[in-house]
Task: structure prediction
Amino acid sequence: MITLVADLDVRIVHAITGKLLRELTIYTTRDYQPQKRQQAGPCGSGLLLMSCDITWRGVDTTA
Result:
């Protein structure tokens, strides 16, 4: 995988095919480094906050 970063936009592409795997936006108002680990995250699965804060922009990852 290759990570491409332009300002606050991040794209993850497959190194061989060049297929876009993920497209993310980093929000400067968010604290992605939690102060303490939560028992159950906002997703209900014990995940850290960043796992639920990612903004997906219509990228089909099922194909």
Summary: The two ends are 16 Å apart (CA to CA). The helical segments are 50-53.
